[in-house]
């Protein structure tokens, strides 16, 4: 790293916290603060910490963790959360990144890989364990198959220039020691892609990041579900993505601040 990056660690297990102290003491991160489970005081500290990495230790990454990450990142956009968990599912990984995480790691990760992963996050990359990558790809493939079966009339450009991975997930291929990694900035869209989206399409993208179904989107915008599907087809074509899950992650990664100010 070209500059020193502060690191804040929260973890509910005192044994894990004690184990992390000597590991992080030898790391390039300064200062390092290791704290128990976040409370209101810790949240205030994180909100005022400025640009730093937050290693979020949890037994499992559920809705409460995602809500916490989303809430803290909203007050401190410069914060880069990295989930360190003992238990996980493919959906946990996807929802964590939608909530604002920059990394998702297993608690059994070797110490040298943990440090390297945090260094990549400090450089602006998103990281996760290669095994998790396969879990996410399988999950995305399964979701896509279900969406195609349920919405057969929704056709997508069969030759997109960005295959399978929205930018944030492409960045997740980058991991310590992975020589076949792709950096997230390799697939970052230009302003022309954002400008090609209409206000209505931006509104739909915002509702996607909230987990809304086509029926809920139609109800919110007072339009028909078939109209929503037409807009979805246009959005996926413009973004060169393959399904709504990818579109939601793309929007959360690249349009977070913009979407907050978009109204129907």
The CATH architecture designation of the largest domain is: 3-Layer(aba) Sandwich
Q: Could you say what the CATH topology of the largest domain is called?
A: Rossmann fold
Strand order of the largest sheet: 2-1-3-4-5-6
Sequence of secondary-structure elements: EHEHEHEHEHEHHHHHHHH
The first-level CATH class of the largest domain is given as: Alpha Beta
Structural class: alpha/beta
Largest sheet: 6 strands, parallel
Going by CATH, what is the homologous superfamily of the largest domain?
Response regulator
Radius of gyration over C-alpha positions, nearest whole angstrom: 19 Å
Span of the ends, CA to CA:
43 Å
Rough shape? Answer: elongated
Q: Share of helix among residues? A: 40-55%
Low-confidence runs: 147-189
Number of domains: 2
Report the β-strand fraction as a percent range.
5-15%
Which whole number gives the mean pLDDT? 76
The count of DSSP E runs of length 2 or more, i.e. the number of strands, is: 6
Helix run count: 13
Can you give a write-up of this model?
The protein has helices at 14-25, 40-47, 63-75, 90-99, 111-122, 130-150, 167-171, 191-195, 199-209, 214-221, 225-239, 244-254, 256-260, and strands at residues 7-10, 32-35, 52-60, 79-87, 103-106, 127-128. It is of the alpha/beta class and 264 residues long. It folds into two domains: 7-133, 3-Layer(aba) Sandwich (Rossmann fold), CATH 3.40.50; 146-260, Winged helix-like DNA-binding domain superfamily/Winged helix DNA-binding domain (Arc Repressor Mutant, subunit A). It has a six-stranded parallel sheet with strand order 2-1-3-4-5-6, with helices on both faces. Helix 4 crosses helix 6, helix 9 (199-209) crosses helix 11 (225-239) and helix 10 crosses helix 11 (225-239). The longest helix has 21 residues, at 130-150. The protein starts with 6 loop residues before the first strand and ends with a helix.
């Amino acid at each position: 790293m070209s500059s020193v990056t502060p690191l804040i660690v929260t973890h509910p297990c005192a044994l894990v916290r004690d184990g992390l102290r000597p590991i992080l003491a030898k790391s390039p991160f300064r200062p390092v603060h290791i704290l128990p489970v976040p409370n209101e005081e810790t949240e205030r500290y994180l909100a005022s910490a400025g640009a730093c990495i937050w290693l979020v230790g949890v037994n499992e990454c559920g809705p409460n963790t995602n809500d916490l990450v989303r809430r803290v990142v909203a007050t401190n956009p410069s914060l880069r959360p990295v989930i360190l968990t003992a238990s996980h599912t493919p959906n946990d990984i996807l929802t964590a990144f939608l909530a604002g995480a920059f990394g998702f790691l297993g608690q059994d990760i070797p110490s040298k890989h943990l440090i390297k992963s945090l260094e990549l996050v400090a450089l602006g990359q998103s990281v996760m364990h290669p095994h998790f990558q396969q879990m996410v790809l399988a999950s995305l493939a399964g979701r896509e198959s279900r969406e195609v079966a349920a919405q057969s009339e929704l056709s997508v450009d069969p030759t997109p220039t960005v295959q399978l991975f929205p930018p944030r997930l492409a960045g997740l291929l980058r991991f310590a020691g992975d020589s076949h990694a792709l950096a997230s900035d390799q697939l970052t869209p230009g302003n022309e892609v954002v400008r090609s989206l209409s206000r209505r399409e931006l509104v739909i993208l915002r509702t996607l990041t909230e987990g809304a179904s086509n029926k809920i989107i139609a109800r919110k915008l007072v339009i028909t579900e078939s109209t929503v599907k037409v807009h979805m087809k246009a959005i996926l074509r413009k973004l060169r993505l393959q399904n709504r899950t990818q579109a939601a992650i793309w929007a959360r990664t690249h349009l977070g601040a913009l979407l907050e100010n978009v109204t129907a």
